[in-house]
Amino acid sequence: MFRTHTCGELNLSHVSQTVTLCGWVQRSRNLGGMTFIDLRDRYGITQLTFNMESHKTLCEQARSIGREYVLQVSGKVVERENKNLKIATGEIEIMVENLSVLNTALTPPFTIEDESDGGDELRMKYRYLDIRRNPVKQALLLRHCLASEVRKYMNSQHFVEVETPVLIKSTPEGARDFVVPSRMNQGEFYALPQSPQTFKQLLMVAGLDRYYQIVKCFRDEDLRADRQPEFTQIDCEMSFVEQEDILQTFEGLVKHLFKNIKEIVVPNMPRITYADAIKYYGNDKPDTRFDMKIFELKDIVKGKNFKIFDDAPLVGGICATGCALYTRKQIDELTEWIKRPQIGANGIIWVRWNNEGIKSSVDKFYNEKELKKWFEIAGGKEGDLILILAGEETKTRKALSELRLEMGSRLGLRDKNTFACLWVTDFPLLEWNEEQKRWNAMHHPFTSPKPEDIELLDKNPGGVRANAYDMVINGVEVGGGSIRIFNKELQKKIFSVLGFTNEEAQAQFGFLMNAFEYGAPPHGGIAFGFDRLCSLFGGSDSIRDYIAFPKNNSGRDVMIDAPSGISKEQLNELGITLKTFN
Amino acid sequence: MFRTHTCGELNLSHVSQTVTLCGWVQRSRNLGGMTFIDLRDRYGITQLTFNMESHKTLCEQARSIGREYVLQVSGKVVERENKNLKIATGEIEIMVENLSVLNTALTPPFTIEDESDGGDELRMKYRYLDIRRNPVKQALLLRHCLASEVRKYMNSQHFVEVETPVLIKSTPEGARDFVVPSRMNQGEFYALPQSPQTFKQLLMVAGLDRYYQIVKCFRDEDLRADRQPEFTQIDCEMSFVEQEDILQTFEGLVKHLFKNIKEIVVPNMPRITYADAIKYYGNDKPDTRFDMKIFELKDIVKGKNFKIFDDAPLVGGICATGCALYTRKQIDELTEWIKRPQIGANGIIWVRWNNEGIKSSVDKFYNEKELKKWFEIAGGKEGDLILILAGEETKTRKALSELRLEMGSRLGLRDKNTFACLWVTDFPLLEWNEEQKRWNAMHHPFTSPKPEDIELLDKNPGGVRANAYDMVINGVEVGGGSIRIFNKELQKKIFSVLGFTNEEAQAQFGFLMNAFEYGAPPHGGIAFGFDRLCSLFGGSDSIRDYIAFPKNNSGRDVMIDAPSGISKEQLNELGITLKTFN
User: Fold this and answer.
1) How confident is the model at residue A582 (pLDDT cuts 50, 70, 90)?
2) Distances (CA, A) of A430 to A171, A280, A426, A451, A527
3) All structural domains of chain A
4) Which pTM was predicted?
5) Is the pLDDT of residue B582 over 50?
6) Minimal Cα–Cα distance from A178 to chain B, Å?
7) What pLDDT does A46 receive?
8) Is the dihedral of CA B568, B571, B576, B577 positive or negative?
9) Which residues of A are less than 8 Å from B187 in CB distance?
10) Are A528 and A478 in contact (CB under 8 A)?
11) CB distance A563–B169 less than 8 Å?
12) Separation between Cα atoms, residue A555 and residue B167, nearest integer Å
C-alpha cells in the first residue's frame, strides 16, 4: 500500500503520528520560510507543510511541483495554528519529511475547482479531470449510494435482481432501436433494449414473483438537451398484485431513499387522476411544490361582448399570490414570454387587486363586481394578481401550465431542496394518432384497462382509463408503470382496437403471447428513470453530471471520439456495406 | 393483494387460520373422496385439499384443473395426517373453501420437475417454463445472492460502483467487437465493450480511488459450448496499491462469498507462479483439489536405448495413487483417449507396482531398480500406477495436464462441493505471435512488467514477467488482473516492444495516453467472470443455467428469435446496405 491514511481522515486524534499520504496537488503557496501544499484525494484535502529552515532541499523540491502532480508524502501530523473548521482535516497539517513525486501532470485545460472555467464540451473531452472536481465526484458518489439503497430496499422486499439480455430483437413499435449486425447470422440484426419490458413480464410467467434490475436501456432518438442514447432504469415487476400494492411498494422505495440519502421523511403521497392533473395543472406531471391551481371562468365571462372569451373553448387562469404590484412592464414581459413559439399563446388578460382596488386589462368589459367574483373563483385576495389565458382547450392548458411554472419560479416556490411527490393515476389507455388515423397504446399494448371501462372499448376507446400510474416529483416524471393484461381474450380485444391483425400481433409479440398461453399470473410493474432520480436528489436540472461518461447532444462521446469509422474487414465480416453519400 | 401468504411459509403455527394463496398447479391427485393439488410459487409448495363430501362442486371444479393452471384459493390451514418433512410446509395443508382459476395453461412441452425431459433447445425456447423448474430458479436466486454479497463486500471496502458506457469505440486489438451503426453520424459505428478496461483506468486518473461494477460485456467470437456473446464481469480497480494489496482485497471478496453463500471458511489462498503452474500441472489454471503433480524423468531415463525417451525434450509423468490394479484394458482405453486429436499424444508408458512387484510397458529397457527410482521421484509407492508421456515440451505438458485431470475425475478427486482456490502470479508479460512474427501483450498493453525484469525488455522480451495474476478455483480461471503501467516512458517502451509506432499507439489508445499526461496514480485491478463464478458456486459445469435468457451456440436467442431481419427503412436510416449473398 502506498499510504497509511487517506487525505480525508486525519484530525487532532492523530497528532504526532507519522503517516504516509498520496494524492494530487490541489494548490501550493510559498510563504517565505514555509511552503504549503493542499493534497487532495477522493476523501478530502490535507495540508502539507514544508519548512525551509529545517528541510531546505525538500522545501525547494516542493516549490517545483505543479498542480495535479501525484505525490506520496510522509511526515508527522501536527496541530495547525490557523485552523480551517470548514473541512474535516482542517485542524491538522503534515510536517513533511519525505516526498516522492509519483507522477507529473500537464496543466489541466480547466481548473479543478467547484466552479470550473471549462465549457461543456471541454469538460466532457477531459471528463477524467472533470470528475476530479468536487461537484461531479459527489454526483457519482450520490449515484452509487442511491443504487445501493435501491437494492437494499428491493432485497428487503424479496425482489430478485435478474439480468435480462442486451442483445435482443428489434420491434417496429415505439422509438427507434439501436441495432447490432450479426456476423454469425449475416443479414440479421440484434437490437439493444429500449426497456426490458417483455423480459420482465416473461419472468413473471416464469414464476419469479418479484423482479427488479438497475439496467442500461437504449433509444436512438434525436437527442434533446437532456436525453442520452443510453440511460439507466430501475425496472421492477410483481405478480399477484393489484395497482394499490404496487403504489404502496414503490412509494415505500422512494420514502426509503429520501430517508436514507437525504434524511427527509416524505409524507404519504397524494394521488391525483390524470384528468384532474390536466384540469388543475394543465399537465400530467404537475409540480406540486406550490399550489397555484388552474381555475376556469368559462361560464361567467361569456356574453359580455369580449370576443376573445366568447370564442374560446377554454378560459382559464392562475392566481399569483402577492403579485398585485407587478408593473405594466413586468406583465408585458410575461406576455412576450408566453407568445414565444415554444408556447404560442396569444396574450395574457390580467386582473390585479391592490390597495387602490381591482384593475384589469379588460375593464371595458367587466365591472369590479364581476372581477371580484373572478378572485373568489381563483381563491385570490387583495394583493394578488390573476393571469388569464383563453383559447383552444389543449393548447391553452399547456400554456397555463408553462405560465404557472414560470410564476412559481419567479416567486421562488420551486426550491430544489423541497420535494413534493405524488402519484398520477388513471391515465387514458389509448391516444388517437391523427397522422395514422388509429388508436395507439399510450403506455404499451399490454397495459390493462380499468375493468369498469372495458365496455367502453368499442363505443368510446378514448374514454377508457388504464391501470397505469406515474410517480411525479417536483414536476418531473420519475417513474411510471401499469398493471398488465394477463387474459388472452382481453389482449386480443386490445390488439384489435389498436388495429393489429392477429398475424401482426403474432409477428411482433408472438413470444410473449405464446408465453401467456402457459399460465400467466396477474402482474404489474413500474420503471424509474435512474439518471433523472439521481439529478433530482442532487438538486440539479441536468442528468449529465450524474453519468460518469455522458454523450453530447449529437450522441458523441467526445472523450473517446465515438462513434467512429470501422475497417473494411469488419464491414465485410458483418456482410454490410456503407451507402455512399456526399 | 391476491394472497395473504406465499406457498412456502405456512406451518403448524398457522393451523386454523384462514389464508389465501396463489400459484401454479404442480400436480393433482384424485383419491375418491378427496382431491389434492400441490400449489407452487417461487417460495415453495403447499398442499391443497378438496373434500368431495363437504364441498362437492368445488371438488369437481378442482378435478377439471390441469397442470400449470394459475389458481387463487382460500381456506383453512389444517395439520396433515401424512406429513412430508422434506418440505417446509409439509406438516400442513389447506382445506379449500374458495377456488378461482386466474388463468388456464396449455400442457407444457416438458415437465416442470427438477429433472426435465426437455432437450436444451426446447428448454431455451420455453425458457419462461424452464425457469419454473427448481434447479433453474435456484440458479437465478443464487446469482442474485452472489451479486448482492459482492456489492456488500465491495461497499464495505469503500469501492464505488460506477456505470461505464455501453456505446463506445471499436478498437482493432483483441477479440472482435460487436458494432452499432450510428444513425446520427452515418458511416460511423459504436462498439459494445469487451470490458470497461480503459474506463476503469480513466476513473483512477479521475481520482475515484476504488471502483467496481457488475457489468455486461460483449465479445463477437465463434462460440464454444460454454461461451456467451454477452457475459457479466465483476470489474474492479484500485489506486495507490501494489499487487499484494489487490490479492489481499480480492481474496477477501472470495472468502466473503464462500462464507456468506456457502458457509465455507476458505483458508488463505496458496500462490504459485505461472512457471511453477506449468511445470507441476501443465496448465496455468491448475485444479488443486488433488495433488498428483507432474514429475520429470528426463536425466535418468536417457541413454538406455529407449528411443522415445532419448528423442524427447520432455519425459514427464503423474502418479495415480492406488491404481496399480488397472487392467491392460483400462490402460489401453486411456491410451486411446489420450491419442484423440483434441490431445494428440502418441501413447502412454506405464509402470505399476503391485504385490507381484513392479511391471511396466518398458521392461525391455529399464530394470526394476531403475523403475523403483522412478517411483521415488514420483512420490509413489506400492499400489500406485505411474503414467508417463514423452515428446515436445509444450504439447506434452498439455497432454499431461489433461491426463492428470482425467485421472483426478476417475479417482473421484474432483468433488463439486470441495473448493480449492489459489493465485497464479508472475505471468509472462509478452507472448510470441508466430503468425505475425511479433510480440503480443499476454494480458493487455497497459500491464506493468515486474520492475526487476524491465531490463530484459530488450534482450529477452519473453523472459519478462508481469505484475499480473489470476485467481483459480477448481481448475477454473475465475478472475484475472494486473498492476497497470502509469509511467509514460515505460508505456512508450512497451508499445515499441509490441511493434507499435507512436502514431499507431496514439490512434488506438490516444485518449487513455492523453489522460495519463495529467497525473495518473499508480493503480491496478482485476475482473471476475461472474457467470462462471455463479456456476462454480452452484456446482455446475454449465454457465447457461445461471443466465436468465442465454443464447445458443450460434449466438441465437431461440425464444425471441433474435437476431432477425430489420426493415429497409431502418437500414436506410442507418446508411447501410446488406451485401447480397447466396
Assistant:
1) very low
2) 20, 22, 12, 15, 20
3) 12-103 (2.40.50.140), 290-410 (3.30.1360.30)
4) 0.96
5) no
6) 7
7) 98
8) negative
9) 565, 578, 581
10) yes
11) yes
12) 10
